[in-house]
Amino acid sequence: MLVSFVRRSVASSASITARNTAVQLGGSLFGAKKGLDVFSSSSSTPRRSFAAGMRGEDLDNIPLKPREKDIPEDTERTKKLLPREIVAELDRFIVGQGDAKKAVAVAMRNRFRRKLLSPEFSQEIVPKNILMIGPTGVGKTEIARRLAKLSGAPFLKVEATKFTEVGFHGRDVDQIIRDLLEVGIQLSKAKMRAKIRPRIEKDAEEKLLDMIAGEDAKSATRETFRTMLKDGLLNDREVEIDVNPESNNGPDSQPNIETLMKILHTSRTRRVKMTVKEAIPFIVRQEGDKLINQDAVLREAIELVEQEGIVFIDEIDKICTPAGSGHSRADASAEGVQRDLLPLIEGSTVSTKHGNIDTSKILFIASGAFYSAKPSDLLAELQGRLPIRVELTALDEKSLYKILTEPEFNLIKQQIALMKTEGIDLQFQEDAIKEIAHLAAEINSSIENIGARRLHTVIERIVEEISFDCDKHSSEPVIITAEDVKTRLLPMLKKMDLGRYIL
């Protein structure tokens, strides 16, 4: 009983850093003129209605659900994107790797197609899990990260090396699903808050006015303070609010004895003094939690995770033993983890503190560089559970140049924007960008190929002096030429051991 109580306490307890949390949540809820709406939704393009994703002479025999009636009205636009439109979205941030983009785009589209089928038929359709193979720095993780933002579905990225076989000290693979459910709960809460946003804003505003003007204040006085609040004139005024501590430990953290003792001897709420601007996110969250049905949140989160969850397992090559290597096959972080992953990926029921989760419809995407090992070194059963195999190509000079120029927020634009904050007008000539790509490719080929990550090191080396002496370069434009690039990087190519200079 004590252990059960402690675990529940850990999930809801926390140390409080009010100012930092307020900064993370950001903005003012009521600032129609100067503030920022916490729940402002991103712009979306008009919805499309697509035909069924199947063709052929047996189409009439496949039971389809009525489309517009059965599809929820709040279905995100991205869930209705065609595969080529998903690829186009990924192209905004990732250069090349068309095969990998197509694979994840089709997997996402199949989610939407399955929803159009009858319940009996859709139960027979399982996700086609994906194995990405390619050297480091070519975009495997970036594709997964961008896919998560695009899909709007519960998404979790894990590293295979962080887990151990059941029975050994460490995290077991079932924790992946438990963490994914926590992500789904937060996503479900955010959706429900967005639906009742006007009411939450009104209740939070009234509560703030009670703190500032007093509950017995006259109507005229409250309206005066209301106007000042909306104009941001009260942002620096201090108020005291009751804050429910939230755990610093993640959902998968194992509490230590010191943490447990603090939980047992600490009140569930604390009275905290902060400014109005910092208090708004806490008050909004509190008022939202009062209006949200927690049971409905859990039901929706479980449904969301089971039907749309995505798990990205990185570094899967690190848990397989190369054939003929002579290493022991009893490693608790290697083949044992593969065996534990088998039922999880194939489909099993995982018990969590919020309920049981069926993993049969969760999409698993695994990736690895496979330098010392080969995909065939994975357990044959695990290979069968990752049927879609995609190979990502190494980046050459041309690809590195595209990475520097084509993405919407490319590295060159990032450096220019960073220097602009210091009043420096940084400019890169075209031949300088080409020289950066050329030298990065040369270093990758002669030392160690770390892909696009080499560009970060090279660019930082080029702008290092400018960034350090930023106060000396604000008077006139700073232009980076090809000669500047060679001057700062070429001597490195003559060194036998570049590890001392470049990652």
Structure description:
- The protein has 503 residues and is of the alpha/beta class.
- Strands 2-5-8-1-9 form a five-stranded parallel beta sheet, sandwiched between helices.
- The longest helix has 22 residues, at 174-195.
- The model is unreliable at 1-75 and 247-257 (pLDDT under 50).
- A hairpin with a 2-residue loop joins strand 6 and strand 7 (355-358).
- It starts with a helix and ends in a 10-residue tail after the last helix.
- It contains 20 helices and eleven strands.
- The radius of gyration is 27 Å and the shape is flat.
- Helix 16 (397-405) packs across helix 18 (430-446) and helix 17 (411-420) packs parallel to helix 19.
Helix/strand layout:
Blueprint lengths: L1 H11 L5 H8 L41 H4 L12 H9 L6 H18 L3 H4 L7 E4 L6 H12 L3 E5 L14 H22 L1 H17 L5 H12 L7 E6 L13 H8 L5 E6 H16 L2 H15 L1 E5 L20 H12 L2 E4 L2 E4 L4 E6 L11 H5 L3 E4 L5 H9 L5 H10 L5 E3 L1 H17 L6 H16 L9 E3 L1 H12 L10
Parallel strand pairs: 1-8, 1-9, 2-5, 5-8, 10-11
Antiparallel strand pairs: 3-4, 6-7
Strand order of the largest sheet: 2-5-8-1-9
> How many DSSP H or I helices?
20
Which class do the helix and strand fractions yield?
A: alpha/beta
Quaternary organization: single chain
Radius of gyration: 27 Å
Unreliably modeled segments: 1-75, 247-257
* Main pleated-sheet profile: 5 strands, parallel
- How much of the sequence is in beta strands? 5-15%
How many strands in all? Answer: 11
> What is the overall pLDDT average?
75
First-residue to last-residue Cα separation: 51 Å
Based on CA inertia axes, which overall geometry fits? flat
Helix content: 40-55%
